[in-house]
Amino acid sequence: MISFIWPPGEPMVAGTGGSETYTAGHIRELRRRGIDAQVVTLGHGTKDGRQDFTDIPFTALGSEAHISELPGTVVFVNKAYNVPTRHKAAIILHCSIPKDSDCDRYKLYIVGRTIIATSVYSGQQWALYLDIPYARIHIVLPFADPVYGSMTRSKPTKRTRIVFAGRLHPEKGIYTILEMMHSKDMRHNGYHVTLVTAGLHVGTGREIARMLRDYPYAKLMPAQKSVKQMARLLAHSDILMMPSVFAEPFGMLSIEAQHAGCRVVASNVGGLPETNCGLLTLVEPRSPLALLTGIKQAVALGQATKKERDHAKKQFQLDESVDELLRVLKST
Fold it and tell me: Which CDD domains does the record match to this protein (predicted)?
């Protein structure tokens, strides 16, 4: 049994971030291989997000002391409880580097535990933050669910279909997009823009969604809660925008889009450059002009060919990610 311990705070909600997608995908693949795996939550009871992930098992514990009783291997997600475990535990650090005042707490999280990061960039940053050798950190790269690669693309349309599918949050570059949308080039070049209203489980997301309710320059779409829904959206899009203004630890959505044959225009920061499957265009962050230029470049490159998509689908595969996870857990 491998138990992924969800961190304190918000429940595990679908369509809200890479940690959720990464964890659920690993559990599905482990169970497909006949290896028992589950999400373990504390403090939410059965309202812990299981309604969004009906195909994977959840266990709700009454207190953190019960973690010590779990059989098999314990893998903490982002944060760890200060409890002993039957076997050496691991911690997967999906999140971006916390503030300096939290450093001592994170140093306690890693004591006696295997440390896993999700990109070379992220691993290097955690090593510096935690003041440990980079060699102590294992890299288990994210993946695109096979559904993205198998989804049939829709036929091209006269208008270029551009989508933003990240959380409605300033750090994801939503305000860069809105400033860009008011340029004449954006409004008169035959672009059709869709903004996915993900991230409404927090106040910031709800506030931005209210601001956009009557926005005339883009279509609003509800958050895509399942792998198939997101894969279908990307297979019906030409360009995905990821204009993050902070250093993403990786950026799973980028590789998911490329597996679906959708070009990606993303900020040249953090782990995003590592997501290149051949359909990625990198641009300067916080610059509406750079984002628009990147979109024009992606349009000029044209629709991804079958050869380009086939190449993309061979990168960041789910089975390879789980192989590496199991190797790390077994070797430590």
Answer: GT4_PimA-like (cd03801)
Closest CA to 24 of 180, 235, 225, 199: 225
Q: Which domain holds residue 187?
A: 146-313
CATH number of the domain where residue 109 is located = 3.40.50.2000
Q: Are 52 and 16 in contact (CB under 8 A)?
A: no
Q: Contact at 8 Å (CB) between 129 and 249?
A: no
Lookup: tokens for 81: 């409880």
- Cα separation of 75 and 17, whole Å? 18
**In the chain, what is the straight-line distance between the N-terminal and C-terminal CA atoms, in Å?**
16
Note whether 99 and 228 are same-domain residues. Answer: no
pLDDT digits (tens, 9 = 90+) for 198-226: 888 889 999 999 999 989 999 999 988 88
43 and 150 both lie in a single domain: no
Give the model's confidence band at 38: pLDDT under 50 very low, under 70 low, under 90 confident, else very high.
very high
Burial status of residue 82 (CB atoms within 10 A of its CB: 0-12, 13-18, 19 or more) = exposed
The encoded tokens of residue 170 equal 């300033």
Q: Is 125 helix (H, G, I), strand (E, B) or coil?
A: helix
Taking only the tens place, the pLDDT of each residue in 75-103 is 999 999 999 999 999 999 998 999 999 99
* 42, β-bridge pairs: 61
Rg of the chain over CA atoms, in angstroms? 20
Closest CA to 4 of 116, 124, 144: 116
Q: Round to whole Å and give the CA distance between 283 and 190.
A: 21
**What whole-number distance in Å separates Cα of residue 35 and Cα of residue 147?**
21
C-alpha to C-alpha distance for 294 and 284, rounded to whole angstroms = 9
